[in-house]
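For reference, the entry.
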Amino acid sequence: MYVYIDPRNGKPFYIGKGKGNRLFAHLKNPSDIEKMDEKKKVAKIAEIQCSGKEPRIEILRYGLSDTEAHLVEAASIDLIGKAKLTNRMAGHHESSFGRITSQRVITLLTAKKVKVQHKAILLTINSLYRSDMSKEELYETTRGIWKVGETNRNKVEFAMALYQGIVLEVYRINQWHPAGTLKYNTRDSSDFKNSGRWEFSGSIAKDIREEYIDFSVGKAGQNPIRYVNI
């Protein structure tokens, strides 16, 4: 596990993991680094180099298993805050939750089960969820982008955002659009177009949301998408 630090202010801007010389690979020409080069990180490194300096690289942990590395990466990103880093994705660890409030943990442990009575698509956003998400962030995280077939997506009326099986919000779907159609203010949507996925436009379903918010509809399996009552 390693961290890239801006030598001009001492602040970390990227958390990474890898083997061998992976920690130095980000310093190569961006055209040579393929998918591991997120645009923000590349821009930050270029900015530092243009100032006549080089990023400072420090090792957080060494000799970890892959599972341990994922845990340290996720915890480090959660601690610093993804908004302060150039990491494209938040860290993820299959066996643990991300950074959430104590109240959210209580909800997870005590939530009562509810049966969904409406035609809905249930969207699990575990890897992207944070307790401090604004309403706009939660909406933009939920509305896209998904692999949904034409038949099923046109049958559902509501979309429910789920974290660990708990309903966070309910949206009334107005229309489905090819991914990359809509504007995103809180997400990087530069790779959404031509992905073959879909996003929806909608609004909070104020008439039914209280029936489901903070209730459990059960955890999903490998597929983050479930349909009910269609």
